Amino acid sequence: MKPETQNYYEQAVRRAAEQVVEALDSALDLQVIARAAAMSAFHFHRVFRGAFGETPLELHRRLRLERAAWSLFHSDVPITSIAFGAGYETHESFTRAFRAHYACSPSEFRQSRDDVRASCERPRPIEIPARSGVHYRPERIQIPSVNFLGTIIMDVQIKEMPELRVAALAHIGPYNQIGKTFGKLGQVVKDSGLLAHASDMVGIFYDDPETTPASELRSDAGLVVSADAVLPPELTERRITAGRYAVTVHHGSYAGLPDSWARFYGEWLPRSGYVAKDGLSYERYRNTPEQHANPDELRTEIYIPLA
């Protein structure tokens, strides 16, 4: 890949990680961090996960928990105050999160300090295992060299795509539930006779699922149609701009699509020599479950717009 492109991504995610570390005493503004990285939130969080193995929000939460564990072991600050400092509104929610990672309650963790002092027991570990190696330190949190891990086994092509005219039905909610909207789209297309002017179905995605509540995610279930097709009133016309796109094919069930997107952004893109641009990322479904009862036979193309 081009060294300057790799450096661009490495520097961007490293600066973002430093911002996360500096924000442990406040709520994390993910939009600000993405803008500072000069990427859209949609692209940025996938690239960050590819480098660090977790999103900025997951890193932020983990470091806050590690800091809380350090405070429990090395100070006498009240547990409720430590919980608030870690971003939890109640003692109960803090206890649940703490137990999930440390297999004990905060009070039990603190009690272990006295047990260690009275015996030769090894202290409980404060670090929560993480691929990135970024952990809380009271003096200074070190950010190691960025490394986009993973073995690239994706078959990716760079294509110049024409503009696509899409007849779309809006979907609001979790992306993995867009199948219901495709069902409604299919009925509208059947009733209107639009299928005679159509080709492939596409899914268009507008929001970053890392920063947008699942109930508010916006997407479209769409059908590529000809220029002369008359759209029924239930459908909205969308345009996917012409340009250069990176394209890979996901083989198999739609349930595996999030993993393919994650690898595409987090592994392939940072080492590819290309830079993603603001624009619509979309899926193009080359066949459907109605055509193939076996999910392993499904083929879905994934498109990332390139600068």
Explain what you see:
The protein is α+β, with helices and mostly antiparallel strands. It folds into 2 domains: 3-117, Homeodomain-like (Arc Repressor Mutant, subunit A); 156-305, Regulatory factor, effector binding domain (Multidrug-efflux Transporter 1 Regulator Bmrr, Chain A, Alpha-Beta Barrel), CATH 3.20.80. Helices cover 38% and strands 19% of the residues. The protein has 9 helices and 8 strands. Strands 1-6-8-7-3-4-2-5 form an 8-stranded antiparallel sheet, covered by helices on one side.
Which strand order spans the largest sheet, edge to edge or round the barrel?
A: 1-6-8-7-3-4-2-5
| Name given to the CATH homologous superfamily of the largest domain | Regulatory factor, effector binding domain
Report on the biggest sheet. Answer: 8 strands, antiparallel
Strand tally, please?
A: 8
What share of residues is helical?
25-40%
Fraction of residues in β-strands = 15-25%
Distance, first to last CA = 16 Å
Q: What is the H-and-E element order?
A: HHHHHHHEEHEEEEHEE
CATH class of the largest domain, please? Alpha Beta
Low-confidence stretches: none
- Stated plainly, the CATH topology of the largest domain is called Multidrug-efflux Transporter 1 Regulator Bmrr, Chain A
Count every helix, treating DSSP H or I runs of 4 or more residues as helices. 9
| Alpha carbon gyration radius | 23 Å
Which of globular, elongated, flat, extended, rod-shaped describes the shape?
elongated
Q: What's the number of domains?
A: 2
Q: Would you identify the CATH architecture of the largest domain? A: Alpha-Beta Barrel
* Mean pLDDT reading: 87
Structural class: alpha+beta
